[in-house]
Amino acid sequence: MPRSTRRRPVPTHPATEEIDLLDVLHALADPTRMTIVRVLRAEPERACGTFPVDVAPSTLSHHFKVLRESGLITQREEANRRFSTLRTADLEQRFPKLLDTVLAAHAHAVPGADPGPVATPQEGSSAQDVGHGRMPGRPQHR
Questions:
Q1: What band does 113 get if pLDDT is binned at 50, 70 and 90?
Q2: Distance (Å, rounded) from C-alpha 73 to C-alpha 23?
Q3: CA 63 to CA 138: how far, in whole Å?
Q4: How far apart are the first and last CA of the chain?
Q5: How far is the C-alpha of 99 from the C-alpha of 122, rounded, in Å?
Q6: Under DSSP, is residue 59 helix (H, G, I), strand (E, B) or coil?
Q7: What tens digit of pLDDT does each residue of 63-88 get?
Q8: Ramachandran area for residue 12 (φ above 0: left; ψ -120 to 50: alpha; else beta)
Q9: Buried (b) or exposed (e) across 32-48, using 16+ Cβ within 10 A?
């Protein structure tokens, strides 16, 4: 049987100024999507089918769509593979330190989760603040 000649639609990505905080936080609220983001934080680019997640391919496609439409990742096609990249610079420009803070908080809350590379603390904050998910320069309230 001949293969289809129909091509997948080219993925669309929001412009940096269109990235919405609530969409980003919603995308980061799912454990599978957090795993994808953590992996992409450690590796600049990765093929979509190579992430260490235990979900069906259709479910994984849905997670990538949520991440892409929220502005967290970009995707490009090469032959029959799709590669994902974290939009670190765009996220830093739009919401400074948000990704570092969420990844650090996740690593603190989930045993065995690695926050990945974390930016150096800003003036008025300490490495302890960043490493434990607190906003740099803000006191901890419990």
A1: low
A2: 12
A3: 33
A4: 63
A5: 15
A6: helix
A7: 999 999 999 999 999 988 999 999 99
A8: beta
A9: bbbbbbbbbbeeeebeb
Cα dihedral across residues 13, 17, 18, 21: positive or negative: positive
pLDDT digits (tens, 9 = 90+) for 10-65: 778 999 999 999 999 999 999 999 999 999 999 989 999 999 999 999 999 999 99
**DSSP H or E run through 128:** helix 127-131
Structure confidence at residue 110 as a pLDDT band (50, 70, 90): confident
Residue 126: the pLDDT is: 40
Query: DSSP state, 123?
Result: T
d(CA 17, CA 24): 13
* CA distance linking residue 48 with residue 89, whole number of Å: 21
| 114 and 38 Cβ atoms separated by less than 8 Å | yes
The rounded Cα 139 to chain-centroid distance in angstroms is 26
Q: Global pTM?
A: 0.74
Phi/psi class of residue 69: alpha, beta or left (left: φ > 0; alpha: ψ in -120 to 50)?
Answer: alpha
